[in-house]
């Protein structure tokens, strides 16, 4: 791990990953994208219980770094294609992490920063934060982040904010589903901790399967009975799994399951 990121894991198994470029508002460049991709691989291998993603300083992430943008403007189409694929792959890794993920939005988020938030399961933001999908004002499109942003905020909000490039506040981010909760800066960590407490009460393997289940149901385009078969197989397998047996036994015996101890 370089100075571009910090990664810490507490005794509960909760990892905190911090974008550490406060001097440029935690903006993306090729190096930061590569470091994030490697960090998500590491979290997958080490089976983090949950992930909190945040930014150092007063911003979450301002999106693309100006020097990086300048280099891409001077690069070939092939260079830009490779660069965009690296960004898309990094975002996909975050989106597909099996552990629950929380974006701790400590300040402004634009472009790729909104993409990072959208890849997280939940997001808690400060009420002073500003957001924007401003690519059209540069003659560009939020292409690589679009699948994740649209899954988070829906087509209607995407049409407005992707087409206008207008900035919006935390209250709007909350109303369109980009944020799950909004608080003042003093309450940010308490709000994150409350969500973590709820998340840590669930079985870790069950939560990973739930994330897969949500994708399965949302993307299913085949016959209904095919989906019914897949969902039935999932619950049957979970009921007889070690974690499922522990959870059911704990409930019947009126005790806490082992994963909470």
UniProtKB/TrEMBL annotation:
Belongs to the enoyl-CoA hydratase/isomerase family. GO terms for molecular function: catalytic activity. PANTHER family: ENOYL-COA HYDRATASE, POLYKETIDE BIOSYNTHESIS ENOYL-COA HYDRATASE PKSH-RELATED. Coiled coil: none annotated. This is Enoyl-CoA hydratase. CDD domains: crotonase-like (cd06558). PROSITE patterns: ENOYL_COA_HYDRATASE. It comes from Wenzhouxiangella marina. It holds the Pfam family ECH_1. GO terms for biological process: isoprenoid catabolic process.
């Amino acid at each position: 791990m370089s100075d571009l990121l910090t990664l810490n894991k507490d005794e509960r198994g909760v990892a905190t990953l911090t974008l550490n470029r406060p001097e440029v508002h935690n903006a993306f460049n090729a190096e930061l994208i590569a470091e994030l991709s490697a960090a998500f691989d590491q979290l997958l291998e080490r089976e983090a219980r949950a992930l909190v993603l945040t930014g150092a300083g007063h911003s979450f992430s301002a999106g693309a770094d100006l020097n990086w943008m300048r280099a891409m403007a001077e690069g070939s189409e092939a260079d830009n294609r490779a660069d965009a694929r690296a960004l898309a792959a990094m975002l996909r890794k975050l989106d597909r992490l099996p552990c629950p993920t929380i974006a701790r939005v400590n300040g402004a988020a634009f472009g790729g920063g909104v993409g990072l938030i959208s890849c997280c399961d939940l997001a808690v933001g400060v009420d002073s934060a500003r957001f924007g999908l401003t690519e059209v004002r540069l003659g560009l499109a939020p292409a690589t982040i679009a699948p994740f942003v649209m899954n988070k905020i829906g087509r209607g909000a995407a049409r407005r904010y992707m087409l206008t490039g207008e900035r919006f506040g935390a209250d709007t981010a909350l109303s369109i589903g980009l944020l799950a909760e909004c608080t003042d800066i003093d309450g940010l960590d308490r709000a994150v901790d409350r969500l973590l407490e709820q998340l840590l009460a669930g079985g870790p393997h069950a939560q990973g399967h739930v994330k897969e289940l949500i994708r399965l149901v949302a993307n299913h385009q085949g016959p209904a009975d095919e989906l019914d078969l897949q969902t039935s197989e999932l619950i049957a397998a979970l009921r007889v799994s070690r974690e499922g047996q522990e959870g059911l036994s704990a409930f019947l015996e009126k005790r806490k399951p082992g994963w909470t101890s």
